[in-house]
């Protein structure tokens, strides 16, 4: 570190977002995926300083703003977490939409502002609703998302054979009904869901090769989402928990996860274009989701999803490293 790392902390539906506002060196010019590779290969110590203890924790999440490469992008972002760098993050998009308006990066027109955010998965458009002159609710329209594989069956650890889908919502997720693992929301501890989801992720990563028509860098299984099984459309909320990266638990319903679920539901004929569904997280916080458009992504019939939520500020910090601190580079206890 040549300078302190400065951050603004926010949360969306309970899920933290640490926005880096200063302290990183200038990145080489290139595509967003090239910038992601450079940060991963040469600046990963800064991720650990920001995400790990004693400044962060095992479930911390971050966003590094970088120079946009795509025409029309208002800002570009690299997402970071306890294991590395993801390709899409819906809760971060919701927070960054508000942040961009509040910081004057984008000016509202009337009661709305449109923020075009370049992500590793592509350009994502956020719409910020203004209320009493301040940024409030934020919606985003996802990149093309699709059901990659359905009704897969694998032996998952010592739990026996499990049925699941794999869907893409800016990142790939395995989707499974939690009841297969004998789990019920509101009854069983979060730790039991984490263990089951992690077993599913590892089994799928070992057996199911993934591909994405746009870039090979997108073709990895980010995590697993266990649901309450209420996939068919109804006016009742549906609950899920997303466990991603290195057993990291999303406190929100997961923006890219909601997108992946909507893509799978649409492919199965369980939800139509424009139908609104409420998605609840493990802590009961909510996102609203709907199929916005029907499209294609390479050989895959696809959708774009519209996901809505709200973000709030929680703090501003400046982080330093003392030369004699043996734990300065960060650590995790799990």
Short synopsis of the structure:
This protein has helices at 32-42, 44-51, 90-102, 190-207, 255-267, and strands spanning 5-12, 15-22, 62-66, 75-80, 112-119, 122-131, 134-141, 146-155, 161-168, 172-177, 221-227, 238-244, 248-249, 276-280, 286-297, 300-309, 311-319.
Features:
17 strands; 39% strand; 17-stranded mixed sheet; 5 helices; Diaminopimelate Epimerase, Chain A, domain 1; alpha+beta; 334 residues
Describe the structure.
This protein has 334 residues and is of the alpha+beta class. The protein folds into 2 domains: 5-142 and 313-318, Diaminopimelate Epimerase, Chain A, domain 1 (Roll); 146-310, Diaminopimelate Epimerase, Chain A, domain 1 (Roll). It contains 5 helices and 17 strands. It has helices spanning 32-42, 44-51, 90-102, 190-207, 255-267, and strands spanning 5-12, 15-22, 62-66, 75-80, 112-119, 122-131, 134-141, 146-155, 161-168, 172-177, 221-227, 238-244, 248-249, 276-280, 286-297, 300-309, 311-319. It has a 17-stranded mixed β-sheet that branches. The longest helix has 18 residues, at 190-207. The protein is globular. The mean pLDDT is 97.
Order of helix and strand elements from N to C terminus: EEHHEEHEEEEEEHEEEHEEEE
CATH class of the largest domain: Alpha Beta
Number of strands: 17
As residue ranges, the low-confidence spans are none
C-alpha termini separation: 26 Å
Count of discrete alpha- or pi-helical segments spanning 4 or more residues: 5
Per CATH, the architecture of the largest domain is Roll
